[in-house]
Amino acid sequence: MLTYNVAGLPEPLSGSKPAKNTKVISQRINAYDIVNVQEDFAYHADLVKHDEHRYRTPPSVPSWVPVPGVPFSDGLNTLSDFKLKKLDRVAWDRCTNADCLTPKGFTYLRLELPGGASLDLYNAHMNAGSGTEKMLRVRRHNVRQLSDYIRKHSAGRAVIVTGDTNSRYTRSGDIVRELRDDNGLTDAWVRLVKGGTTPEVDDDAPTCKESTECELLDKVFYRSGPGLVLDALHYSNEYAEFLDSEGEPLSDHNPPTVTFSFTVDDDGNGAAEAPKDATVRRR
């Protein structure tokens, strides 16, 4: 599966060229079974123009708004080859500066796997910025709000949490570890790329976007649940897959992808009909 901040703010507010690039992104995302997108604001029609996924979440806009976009949309959507159910959109209780122009937050939905097994899928976009203590404090509140929701609504269930966390393990003001550890989650990048060793807090640590070795703001967490065992098999920074014809990134974020395998236990829902092993992967 892929998580991707598509930089869909209206030009010139976007950090990219979404009027042109979103149509290209629409074609590229077809390579992945499940795609969680953030900042799908003003160019949603372009994003789905070439999309071939069978299931999509409807944009979060009032019925009287003719075109999805700022300031009504949270920019969070899921495109999937697997059936989506029980969608819930939750806005953050707190925000700062330009983040308050949209109802940013997270989505929760039930993802149905072959044979009837299911997991809870989250897609989040946290408060941006690290230049002030207020920005960091609000983002910490975002983390705890999401964590509280997971504990209440996904207790005892298999979970995948993805999105633009705007957080780094190396940044002293961030608490993304808390989201992971308090909910029994595994960070796919930490496990598969860093050998299970989480980077230490170091505000002077170098950052980059292009390499799989880089810690991205965009993260993928997961855990198994009764009747369903999830395993992350492969992690990749898909930087090279999302460049335009001139070699420039299609967004100001580079999307990570994780290939998952899932095994339905004999006691799991739908186990009698479900394949014992299957994958959620790049097509």
Task: Note down, in words, how this protein is organized.
By secondary structure, the chain is an alpha+beta fold. It is 17% helix and 27% strand. The chain is built from 5 helices and 13 strands. It has helices at residues 18-28, 44-47, 133-153, 176-182, 188-192, and strands at 2-5, 34-38, 55-56, 77-80, 84-91, 105-112, 118-125, 159-164, 186-187, 218-223, 228-237, 256-264, 277-280. Strands 5-6-7-8-10-9 form a 6-stranded mixed β-sheet. Helix 1 links the parallel strand 1 (2-5) and strand 2 (34-38). The chain is globular, with a radius of gyration of 18 Å. The termini are close together. Residues 268-277 have low confidence and may be disordered.
Outline type: globular
**Overall pLDDT confidence:** 90
**Rg result:** 18 Å
Q: Give, in spatial order, the strands making up the sheet with the most strands.
A: 5-6-7-8-10-9
Determine the structural class based on helices, strands and strand pairing: alpha+beta
- Low-pLDDT residue spans: 268-277
End-to-end distance, in Å?
9 Å
Walk me through the topology.
Blueprint lengths: L1 E4 L12 H11 L5 E5 L5 H4 L7 E2 L20 E4 L3 E8 L13 E8 L5 E8 L7 H21 L5 E6 L11 H7 L3 E2 H5 L25 E6 L4 E10 L18 E9 L12 E4 L3
Parallel strand pairs: 1-2, 7-8
Antiparallel strand pairs: 2-4, 3-4, 5-6, 6-7, 8-10, 9-10, 11-12, 12-13
Helix pairs in contact: 3-4
What's this entry about, in short?
With 283 residues, this protein is of the alpha+beta class. It has helices at 18-28, 44-47, 133-153, 176-182, 188-192, and strands spanning 2-5, 34-38, 55-56, 77-80, 84-91, 105-112, 118-125, 159-164, 186-187, 218-223, 228-237, 256-264, 277-280.
